[in-house]
Design goal:
Strand order of the largest sheet: 1-4
Order of helices and strands: HEHHHEEHHEHHHH
Helix content: 40-55%
Number of helices: 10
Low-confidence stretches: 1-16, 57-61
Shape: globular
Number of strands: 4
Number of domains: 1
Radius of gyration: 20 Å
Largest sheet: 2 strands, antiparallel
Amino acid sequence: MDTSTSNSSTISSSSSGNYAARLQIDYPDKLDRLTTFFRLIAVIPIAIILGLIAGAGEQVHYTTYLNQAGEVVRTSRDTTGGILGGLFAATLLMILFRQRYPRWWFDFARELTRFEARVGAYIALLTDKYPSTVEEQSVHLEIDYPDAKNGLNRWMPLIKWFLAIPHYIILAFLAVGVVFAVILAWFAILISGQYPKGLFDYVVGVSRWGLRVSAYVFLLVTDKYPPFSL
């Protein structure tokens, strides 16, 4: 690991209070105006790839409801499955019944989360580097591998989604703020070539908050309740 990566990991760990999931994104000195202007178009290919990976195995079911005369009343569309949903369910069951978290699918979940973070950072204009499927780039995300037998309560995965409701509500409001922050940053970059530091820290902070909640509720790597902090 090079020095810059090591420093980023150290900064991330200290600023997150050693939480099991940490995120740090390098602040860019200068951003390209042209790629920023066409960002929503440029991101389409890699966004499709991410969607194919995250949605692999997803099934769509259509249910048709008839009245007594045999006429169609309405049709509903139900979506089930997907690799993320399957991974969450499998991890929950493994912790619940076996108190195990297989290393190989933890590694997959972590790398997929890292990939999602790179795509998200690119969309949010936090970096000019086109998202890599392999390299860390300027987005430093680390998730600690849990000791499922001694460090996790086997029953907690059943109620974490409920306990995290306050976080969902706050993050919903913060996400609205992120949208406006990115729009303002877009204009600022086109004018000055720089991302306002305050807006940058806010967007990264919300992303960090969301990562901690994801690590607690969906990745199930920790029982430590996420802090209410950017």
